[in-house]
Amino acid sequence: MRIRTNDTVRVIAGEDRGATGKVLRVVLKDHKVVVEGVNRVYKHVQRSQRNPQGGRLSKEMPIAASNVQLICERCGKAARMGTRYLPNGSKERYCKQCGASNGQVAPPKARYAKP
């Protein structure tokens, strides 16, 4: 998955379409992400020592990673991301619209280095 924690994404499908937010958590097993301020639900909590008031607690729930699109740091648009190997053999994410790098994904490996 090309989306990581602290990335800025835009929701492209679902009830919150068009919303922009920061990725709080990535659930790799289910291929989902939790985005700040998106897909909020109310969880009803009973009174306890931890929560003496009780009531409704609003929290974000995971959405499918296919429903979000990463926002490029350079051009500021929601664009598709790709991966490529650099001449030193390290792997990076890049914007397919403007070609800008969006961070390293893997450390350098000798077998991918170009002479």
Can you characterise this structure?
The strands form three sheets. The protein has a five-stranded antiparallel sheet with strand order 6-3-2-1-7, with no helix packed on it. Strands 8-9-10 form a three-stranded antiparallel sheet, with no helix packed on it. The chain has a two-stranded antiparallel sheet with strand order 4-5. With 115 residues, it is an all-beta fold. It has no helices and ten strands. The protein is 0% helix and 43% strand. The chain has strands at residues 8-11, 20-27, 32-35, 40-45, 55-60, 63-64, 68-70, 81-85, 91-95, 101-106. The two termini are 29 Å apart.
With strands numbered from the N-terminus, the spatial order across the biggest sheet is 6-3-2-1-7
Helical element count? 0
Helix and strand element order:
EEEEEEEEEE
Summed over residues and divided by their number, the pLDDT gives a mean of 93
Number of strands: 10
In quaternary terms, these chains amount to: single chain
- Secondary-structure-based class equals mainly beta
Percent of residues in beta strands?
35-45%
User: What is the overall silhouette?
Assistant: elongated
The percentage helix is under 10%
Radius of gyration: 18 Å
Low-confidence stretches: none
Report the end-to-end length measured between terminal Cα atoms.
29 Å
**Main sheet attributes: strand count, strand direction, barrel closure:** 5 strands, antiparallel
